Amino acid sequence: MVDVTIPDLTVGAAVADADLFESSQSGSTAKSTAAEIFTYINSKTFTSLELQRYSETVATGSATLDRADGGIQTVTMTANITLAVTIAAGESLTFHLSAGDTYTVTWPTMTWVGGSTPTLTAADVIEFWKVGSTLYGAYVGAV
């Protein structure tokens, strides 16, 4: 298996064939043009491809957010819940929560930006990320 990482490529951004990107493959790093990267990708045969934008859950009692289920996840509460977040160090997850104004969330052990748990509304967005063994959370806002 060959992994190709292009860290400075922005999804949805216009890319010209001559644009340069830093790419890494099997531990070595090089500058590649967008045309070279596209040619490389087009020369490969994919045996499987999975695209997953988000995972949606209706929760009563407990809910687990697992980064393996996608980087954007939604939970609609139908009762109070205890939340678990499963992400590895260096990963992040965007969380859309519905009914936070009606039900209560028991959060996992974590550090909140600003020092305290957020006051929830009917629809909220929260970002989680992990550095080392510490889980962090930031209230993005109501939607």
Q: Total helix count?
A: 1
Domain module count: 2
Shape descriptor: elongated
Summarize the helix and strand pattern as letters: EEEHEEEEEEE
**Terminal Cα separation, in Å?**
41 Å
Mean pLDDT value: 78
Alpha-carbon Rg, integer:
19 Å
Q: Could you describe the largest sheet, including whether it forms a barrel?
A: 7 strands, mixed
Uncertain segments are: 49-53
Q: What share of the residues lie within helices? A: under 10%
Q: Give the helix/strand class.
A: mainly beta
How many distinct beta strands?
A: 10
What percentage of the residues does DSSP assign to strands (E)? over 45%
Please describe the structure with a list of short key phrases separated by commas or semicolons.
about 140 residues, 2 domains, three-stranded antiparallel sheet
In short:
The chain has 143 residues and is mainly β. The chain is built from one helix and ten strands.
Question: Can you give a write-up of this model?
Answer:
With about 140 residues, the chain is mainly beta. The protein has two domains: about 5-40, no CATH class; about 55-140. It is built from one helix and ten strands; from the N terminus they run βββαβββββββ. The protein has one helix spanning about 35-40, and strands at about 5, 20-25, 30-35, 55-65, 70-85, 90-100, 105, 110, 125-130, 135-140. The protein is elongated and about 50 Å long.
